[in-house]
Design goal:
single chain; mainly alpha; 0% strand
Length: 524
Amino acid sequence: MEAVHGFTPPHNPKCSCKTCFSNRLDLEYQNKRLQAYEQTTSIEYIRATFERPFRAAVDHCADLKKASESTNVHRKRYADLYKGMCSILQKMMKSQEVNINNFLDVQETINHEPHILRKLLEQENMEVITHFKMQHWLSQRWEASFADYFSLVRWLILCLAWFFPPMFSVFGAFELDFAKALRVRWNSHLSSHFCFFILLLLRLFWDERGTSLRAARFNDTFVVELTLGLFVMSHLIILMVRLSHRGIKSFMKDWWNWVEMCIVINGINFFVASSNIALQNQNALPMNVNRRHIPSTDHVYMCEFSLSLMILLMVVRFAYFVQMTYRFGRLIVAVSQCAKEYLRSLLVLFIFFMGYAFAIYGVLHPFATKPEDRRHDLTKNNGFQVYTDDFLDTAANLYWNLLSLVDEGYGQIHAGFTGPNQTPVQPFLSILFSKFLMVSFYVFIVVALLNVILTLMIMQAESYKTMGDENWAFARTRIIIDYFNYEMAAPPPFTCIILLLTTIRMITTLVKRILRTRKMRFKN
C-alpha cells in the first residue's frame, strides 16, 4: 500500500494493533477523498474550465512571438513560451494523462504575466514551463512582504474609524461648553465615516488580483488584540489625566485608582502574551500553509479571559457609580435614571446587531452563496468572479467585500484562485455559526466602548462631587443625557442612520421654528 498525502501505511495489512488500525482508517479516508477529488478534476472538467483562457494565452503568446521576430529581441524565449503553451493545450485536448497542477501553475502565470515575463527576461538559459512555479512563488513572496505593511495601515485606519468617536467623547467631557462638546462629537462622527469609506475604497480598488490585500500576519484575531490594546491605552490616558488633575496624594488615597491600575497592568500583560503566542504559532508554520485559518488555542483563551476581565471591570465600575449616587444623592432616582439610560443603550445596540444579523444572514446570504449560478469567465478580470447580472449580485458582491474587511479568510474559492469578489462554498448553518463568532468580536469592541463611556460618567460624577452640588441626584440626569453617548458604541455603518436621523431632526426643528415665527408675525 502506498502512502497518500503523507499518511504512513500499516506495517502489515492483517495487523490489528492500534497504530496500524488507525493508519488503515486514515488511508481509506484519504483514498475516498482522493477519488472524489479526481472526479471533480476530470479531463472534461478541466477542458470546460480552462479551454478559453488557455486558447487566449496561446494567442497572446503568438502575438509576443511575432513581435519578437519583428524586432529580433528575445526570439528564443518567446518561442519557448509559445511552444510550451501549445504543448500543454494539446495535452489538455487530446491526452487523458493530465495533471491539474500544471494547469493551475500556468493559469497563475497568466494572471501574473507581466511580472513573470519581466523576470524571464532578466535570466539566462531558463526553461519556461518548468520554472513557472518558482517564479510565481517569488512574486507571491514579494507581494506578501508589501502586503504586511499595507495590512497594518489598513487595520490602523479601521481602528481609527472605530475609536475616533469614543476618544473624542472622552476628551470632549473636559469641556464645560456643551455646544462645543456636541460639535466635537459631530466632527468625530464624520471623521469615523470618512476613515471607514476610505478603507472600503482601498479594499476594493487597491489591486485587481486581491493579492496585495492578503497579509500573512494580520488575521481576524488581530482586531481583538488591537481592541484590547487600545482599551488599555485609553484607560492609561484617563489615569494620567486624573493624576494630573488631582495630584499624587489624592490619587493614591482613592482605592478605585489602585484597582484600575491593577486591571490595566494585567491587560497589558495579556495583550503582550497573546501577541507573542500568535506570532510564535504563525512563525512555526510551513510556507505553504494558509496562516489565517490556524487559530491558537492559548491565544483564544487569552482573548476570552481578557473579555471577561473587561466585563468584570464594567460591572465594578457600574457598582462604583451607583455607590457614588447613594452617598451624594437619592438612591432610587439615581439608580432608576442610570439603569434606564444604560438599558436603553443596550437595547439600541441589541436592535442594531440583530438587524445586522437578520439583514446579512437571512436576506443577502442566500443570494450570495450560489456559485453554481454565477458562471464566471476566467478571461475577464484576471480570472476572478465578478457579479454584473442584477441588483442581487451587486448586493452579494458588497456583502463579501464588507465581510472581508474583518475576516480575510472569506471570499476564497476552492479551485485555487483568490479574490475579493468570490463566494466561498459553505453550507448555510456553518456560515451562520462563523458569523456568530464574528459578532462576538463586535461584542468585544462594544464592551470596550461601554467601559470608556462608564469611565466618562464616573469622571463627571466626581467633578460634581468635588463641586459639592446638593442636588447632584437630579443634576446627574443631565450628565447622562449629555454624555452617555450610546450611539458611539455602534459600528460606523450603523451610525450613518443616526447621522441621517439627527440631520432630519435638525432640519424639521428649523422648519418648525421658521413657520412658528412667521405665524406669530402674521398674527401680530
